[in-house]
Amino acid sequence: MDDLLLKISYTLTDIDKAAIQFWDKLHNYRIFAFSGDLGAGKTTFIHKLCDHLQVQDAVSSPTFALINEYHFTGPAGVDKMIYHLDWYRLRDTAEAINAGMEDCISQAGKGAAYCFIEWPEKAMELLQKPYLWISIETTGIFEREMTVKKVGG
Ligand SMILES: Nc1ncnc2c1ncn2[C@@H]1O[C@H](COP(=O)(O)OP(=O)(O)OP(=O)(O)O)[C@@H](O)[C@H]1O
Ligand SMILES: [Mg+2]
């Protein structure tokens, strides 16, 4: 059974607050699957999350690169790594493995990195439990509703 961990609505005005609330509650997880239609706001939210974490690298949509790697300084000055993955252009799990996605997930599974995945539906079999299923719905021109469920574990 999937556990509902968080349900929030936000606009671009209070998205920073939403990102803080999200991270306060969910920072112990490593695999974050962001589901939502084109333009739902997956990249925008991940960008805000990375701002909150004071990521040192430029955050952008990995639509073409498929994998972006970012770093931030965690508690006790430890270097933490984020893989920002976009599976939109992948056809299936086999293509995802060829593109190196399995390695990113398995590092996250071992606690050595975080994975923020856009379009996780393209290669569901690669997601290692426990992971978070984050669904973003457009509820108004500027309003989004996010629900976060824990899957497995
Ligand atoms: N509350 C909101 N949260 C996020 N984005 C919003 C919000 N309100 C309006 N927007 C706008 O919606 C668009 C979201 O685009 P974004 O690239 O983040 O979507 P996406 O889900 O990553 O799409 P894709 O599937 O193409 O990767 C942006 O233009 C953003 O400014
Ligand atoms: Mg995107």
How would you concisely characterize the structure shown here?
This protein is 25% helix and 32% strand. It is α/β, with parallel strands linked by helices.
Question: How would you describe this structure to a colleague?
Answer:
The chain is an alpha/beta fold and 153 residues long. The protein has a single domain (18-125), classed as Rossmann fold (3-Layer(aba) Sandwich), CATH 3.40.50.300. It has four helices and seven strands. It has helices at residues 15-26, 42-52, 93-98, 101-109; strands at 3-10, 31-35, 67-73, 79-86, 114-118, 131-138, 144-151. Strands 1-7-6-2-5-4-3 form a seven-stranded mixed β-sheet, with helices on both faces. A hairpin with a 5-residue loop joins strand 6 (131-138) and strand 7. The longest helix has 12 residues, at 15-26. It is globular. The model has no long low-confidence stretch (mean pLDDT 96). The protein binds adenosine-5'-triphosphate and magnesium ion.
CATH architecture: 3-Layer(aba) Sandwich
**Average pLDDT:** 96
Main sheet: strands, sense, barrel = 7 strands, mixed
- The tally of strands reads 7
Give the class-level CATH name. Answer: Alpha Beta
Number of helices: 4
Radius of gyration: 14 Å
The CATH topology corresponds to Rossmann fold
The SSE order reads EHEHEEHHEEE
Helix/strand/pairing category = alpha/beta
Shape: globular
| Bound molecule kinds, no repeats | adenosine-5'-triphosphate, magnesium ion
- CA(first)-CA(last) distance: 10 Å
